[in-house]
Here is the input.
Amino acid sequence: MGTITALGLLLLICMVAVGGTQGLQAWISLLFNFGALFFAMVLMAFHFSPVLVTLVTGIIVLAMTIFLGGNDSNSTMVAFYASVAVLILLVILIIPIEHWAQIQGFGQEDSEDLEGMSTILGISYLNVAISTAILSTLGAIAEAAIAIAAGLAEILEQHPKITLKNLQAAGFKVGSQIIGTTFNTLFFGFFGGFLALFIWFAGVHYSLGEILNDKILVGEVLMVLFSMMSVIATIPLTTWAMVASERQARKKV
Amino acid sequence: MIIGAKQTHSLWQRWWPYLVVILGALLVFGVAHDDQLYQTPILKIQSVKQISSDKQSDQFNNEDRQVEQELDGVITNGNDKGKKLKIENTYLKSQATTLGYHRGQKVFLTVHHNRNRISATISNLKRDTALAFTVWLTVSLLLVLMRFSGLMALTSVIVNGVLFWLAVSWNTHTQGGIVLAIFGGLAIVFAALTLLIVIGFNRQMLMTLLATIGGTAIAIIVALAVFALTHERGVYYESMQYVTQLPRPLFLAETILGSLGAVMDESTDIIASLMALKTEKPDISAKQIFKSGRQIGGEIMGPLVNVLFFIFVAETLPLALLFLKNANSWGYTFNMTMSLGVVQSLISGIGIVLTIPLACGITSLMIGGHKSWGRLQH
Here is the structure.
């Protein structure tokens, strides 16, 4: 058995043992997300527009992650709408910044990987860079939206008569509780993955100026920042969506 | 007097994030005009003329356009400041390894002095302003929307960033020989410092720290056991990027750091909720605490594993596309570009899941029931 298969099966066993049906759902959503990512890549290789493919993939991935993750149907619906709104805002922000910073493709540090490869590709790597940045934030958006919506749903359950103004304040309070640890999840997730690159910089004695203008590093830091911004934006947007949905629900009664 | 002081106090409390925003904007403006700080000559591109655009193709039937452009600009720093220069630049439209430039951009030059004439080639694009702008935008959003908790989150990220860089330098000094020891040890320091900043020093923080370190350690031990049992079949260390030292320990160090944040995130959530539950219902039993913790953990583990999965695997997309366009099979492309990211996600996932019983166990032992350790100590 290959290592990936063994680790995957072990993860399934652990998830089911700890979370039961929910664990099984979590494992399926992970498998599905891998499939979606791989399928998106193949579509891009067949010259479908990378940004369009990413947007469609992104919405599907958010739906799968959120609906397979949450329990309460009302709060998961709100989380989904809010996360799609964040995704669209993020795309509007990422496109101009990536055009500005031009971090697409490969840097001089990649030359070993590129040896013997043809770089006549016919795919706009600027668009691929935009897609990569969007895809890398999807997990963070989904997680933050679920956390805020679930937190607010619990507050609503315990205090059904809470005023809408207090509900909004509660949303920001839940947000302030998750932001510190979520930032560290993102920081370590990204910087852990690029440890080798930093060791390279230190080993070759890059100057500060070279590091701050380096294609790969700037691209990487931009991805961390996009993820952080998406988490920050998710807090008010999910809260407002929850308040709006509660206002609707109260009007009907 | 006292009223006056109170008013300035509340005024300060209300407006400090905006002050930081304005100061930050000035700083970004400064970075846009920092050419003098660089020793490398910088050229500001004033006009761009396209000379030619030809179709190119390779043996895999990929088609691209090769564009030649002539850039006119002026040097903005150093001895040659003010000199006008014409540079030719050739790039492929896909821009995977070469770049096309636009009017108004600044580029770094390698200047060749040839008698009295100077000629130059472009070495890199100046990206510091775009970077500074995005940092500023993130910090501004964070402070204006989240205020004090935002400031704390920012502080912990900055502290961790500095520590991270120190550890990297230390690793370089030791030629990478003890990379696992450095980053394993630093993971503990990272966790302790971050939790101190986010929670403060108390029993809850110590419990969270214990769960975080335990969870990350279990993930690595389980991974090593699986590696040994499967003889690391399908783990292609040679596909690791930017490797300048032994890849296997480096990969494990990357995995430790990568999972640390998520495991910490999760233990913080579980233990904080359980502490709140204990305050609400002081006579709750250890068994009930464990059960509620498992429920909370079960809800957050799926999304959290996906956060890391997208971080680890999405960034392999550009290289994977390059492999596919070079007529490699899907399987080979996966092995050479994505497989290590997937292995990392799976190891982190196992860590995230196993942290749940660990965090619940620690909490129920410390605060639950009559025969708990917490009670015995009092």
In short: Residues 215-252 of chain A form the longest helix (38 residues). Chain A has two domains: 1-47, 49-105+124-252. Chain A has ten helices and no strands.
